[in-house]
Fold each of these.
Amino acid sequence: MLTPLKDLVQAAQAGHYAVGAFNFSNLEILKSITETAQRLSSPVIIQTSQSAIKYAGLGFIVAMARAAAEETDVPIALHLDHGTDLDLIKECIARGYSSVMIDGSHLPLEENIRITREVVALAHPSGVSVEAELGRLVGVEDEISVDEREASFTDPDEARRFVEATGVDALAVAIGTAHGQYKGEPKLDFDRLKQIAGAVETPLVLHGASGVPAESVSKAIKLGICKVNIDTDLRLAFHGAVKSFLESSDSYDPRKLLAPAMEAMSEVVATKINLFGSAGKAVR
Ligand code: G3H
Ligand code: 13P
Ligand code: ZN
């Protein structure tokens, strides 16, 4: 059985740790995540972007996630990451996702509230949790001024208004992280995070956490982050392992090619789970 994200992030909030949310799009990535969570007795969130669903197919994603939940005894939430397509969100709810994200962060505040309320009304009656985003993550490639960077960050007063108006179960905040590989060291706005956490009781989510120094992630968790999203670090581990295998072996057996990739991804997942403090927190 898949677990609602709400249960995992609320337990994390009460226990002052965070749950890792790892993106997957195939069996090898999924098994690396869930088998490591099992080994460390950690709750875990497995998530797919809309493009990952397009790649693997919704039926395969749900079947693989259900199999992973049956094969383990740690709580697993299956979450839609950065949902923008209402039809797909409805389909994910109908097909068994235990959580969905509606990403209206690119919309004006009132529009973001409206669409998020709509998704909450669709999801909650089926026991499905909802994550939303307020503020905008800038791209690692974006050349923007300090003022533009500040303007894209989450405003604490707007966050209070947003969660009251929508009733979301988790809120993604923009405090200086970005998706993808950072060029320099990301600088997080911890004062802002503190203010947001003081303004809302809703568990907070950190996107773009790959490549963020461990001390910064720990500090963000201390200040109220309860869900941490990781994708790029898994992709880099996968890519690095496949590349060195191909440089050193002539084997054409896909299982031999992907075994070191799984090992490398499992190592990343274990490091993150230990950093987030969720090891040993599995209760189902
Ligand atoms: O936040 C974005 C995730 O890393 C997913 O990216 O659309 O390439 O699957 P994707
Ligand atoms: P990274 O790829 O930077 O780890 O971001 C992941 C993420 O936020 C998925 O929503
Ligand atoms: Zn994200």
Amino acid sequence: MATLTPLAHSNCVTVKIGSALLVDQESGHINQNWLADLGQDIAALKQAGKDVIIVSSGAIALGRQRLGFKKSKLTLAEKQASAAAGQSVLTRAYEDVLAPFGIVTAQALLTLNDTEDRRRWINARETLTTLISVGAIPIINENDTVATDEIRYGDNDRLAARVAQMVGADCLVLLSDVDGLYDKNPTLHEDATHIPQISSLTPEIMKMGGDANQTIGVGSGGMATKLQAAKIATEAGCAVAITKGNETRPLTALMEGKLNASWFIAQTSSLAARKQWIAGSLKPQGAIIIDAGAANALANGKSLLAAGVTDIRGQFEKGDAVEIHGPAGTCLGRGLCGYSAAEAIKIKGLKSGDIEATLGYDGGTTLIHRDNMVLET
Ligand code: GLU
């Protein structure tokens, strides 16, 4: 009997869909039947109570057809123009197959900076988690139209891994045209062995994304970027599957262990990975002083609200790490602040209703969300 895979146990799934699956390579049009089938599969995940995020490629492949670019190699400007023309078709296609299930989709285009710069990261995270919290499915792609080479991912495998990390997903599925990792390129070597489970991404495994498997598949990334994505995600506490998407109901089959795939085991829980990152790698840029009531609330697992803040020290920007000090001056922990020091000074001690009147906009009453906070033990 097939065993249930990490997808069956997950609460939040990021599904990455490659161009080769979505777009017919000959005609440059959407593979409509395949997408309708996938829509059912995604609706089934939602019905099973899972949050879903889609990272989809295909904008350039769809747009080049619309703009009539026939040659095989496009210039950067032609690719960017194609992405602009293709992205609306791409988003609409997902909307069309998911709306009949009552699922709202929302387009989000990200650049490398949105996932690497903490200020932008915290903003993008808030947007995505807000969409997810109301049951919508974000349809994400790289903002190819404005990204230049230096600030580009160039492949959606790593973008999907960063998105999974950002929203705290516990499962990332890379749907592609290969059913996983082989010890050597299976198109060249008959004796290539499929590897169904990888518990650690050793240098030996990472090397399998190099020469042996580099040219596998037609996506931008090949196996090398898939392994890099697996490394980012598993270290962030997210299990990863690489599997072939052109099967009937691939996600259901994968969930039930009936689809050939390579599974990469999560190295930790996603929350633990985030907290380790906050506790270990970030230098605090200031401190927030809080009253006894707020200290008590934090000890009980609550977020830090403006009402409990008595003072602010240092110069920090939104998204920076800060220390949290109790009324007696003891350091209680640290976290990523949702406001800059200048804003935090203005709203300290305020209740939610007064924040908008003071700042001119409503940034919410939470200074540090509990998921962005690590307390001293
Ligand atoms: N963002 C690109 C597109 O939508 C695809 C990148 C990739 O293939 O990974 O066309």
